[in-house]
Automatic annotation (TrEMBL):
This is Phosphoserine aminotransferase. Residues 5-346 form the Aminotransferase class V domain. Pfam families: Aminotran_5. PANTHER family: PHOSPHOSERINE AMINOTRANSFERASE (PTHR43247). It comes from Campylobacter geochelonis. Keywords: Amino-acid biosynthesis, Aminotransferase, Cytoplasm, Pyridoxal phosphate, Pyridoxine biosynthesis, Serine biosynthesis, Transferase. Binds 1 pyridoxal phosphate per subunit. The lineage of its organism: Bacteria, Pseudomonadati, Campylobacterota, Epsilonproteobacteria, Campylobacterales.
Amino acid sequence: MSRVINFSAGPSSIPLEVLQTAQAEFLDYKGCGCSIIEISHRTPIFEEVLFSARDKVKSLYGFGDEYDVLFLQGGATLQFAQVPMNLYNGGVAQYVNTGVWTTKAIKDAKILGINYEVVASSEETKFDRIPKDIKFSDDADYLYICSNNTIYGTQYKEYPKCKCPLVVDSSSDLFAREIDISNIGLFYGGIQKNGGPAGVTLVVVRKDLLDRVGANVPSILRYKTQAEADSMSNTPNTFGIYMLNLTLDWVIKQGGLASINEKNEKKAHLLYSYIDGSNGFYKGHAQDDSRSLMNVSFNILSKELEMKFVKEASEAGMIGLKGHRHLGGIRASLYNAITYENVETLVDFMKEFARKNG
Ligand SMILES: *Cc1c(COP(=O)(O)O)cnc(C)c1O
């Protein structure tokens, strides 16, 4: 077996142990004589998987009984519309624009015709930072942010301390660190970056917000429908939820979110400090105090060298390093499944590449 080091932004690397457990259990799930993907979601066997994943999400983050945990479909992208459909309450919805994903969320707010306001943006400087001193109104219907900007490589160190419900797109830093949940109204993410395969969106929503939903929102798009049905109002992505549950077991085995965060800090520090010390051969995109621990976006002296870098890295067994088309350059995604040793291998390759091409 030969596996590459996968620095892809999503879908992305999954811990080998998780893949091996899924492989071992695939044909005969715990003695039931069939695969987990062949049984009804209405069986106790599957319900146990779903409830177990739900309970792990709650205990890892510390979400109490005032929250519902939902496993939905339609990607993180559907949340750009589902959030305003369910949480807009006739007042004003506030957004902080920090990149492609928030731009899309704002676009959907506009299409839906709600009253919204962009209270801060880093667009002028090509989204290289998280805006400081965000001026929000505490009685807005909600304040919407993106925790980690997968493309530009920026991340909130702390969430805004608004008194209105905070809505957080955490797709690319799910299960990567502890968060302050005191003002969270809704916390969500597609799991394909840091929690398993594509096709499941984790949504954690405060129960008292469920009744805000607009009168003409169809049943399946109401959080309330899925909350009342334990996410099984229709057939959920059973395989995705099963994989998420295995990944959460792995996260717990790593020592939980604080311990995972410590590892992520060390990994990111190794790469950023090498980039900073490379005499300008490599140049990071994000400003220092906004740097993401998850996605490290950087440039090399020329476009030709960037293409050569991606090609030679791939020949050396490292894939997924080509930057997003919006920004170009190189992007190394250092999600939870990437080890410190993997980052050392990348940095060694970068040193050698700079030596040969500098
Ligand atoms: C990947 C990503 C999305 C889009 O996710 P889909 O599941 O493809 O809809 C949204 N927000 C962020 C922050 C992302 O990283």
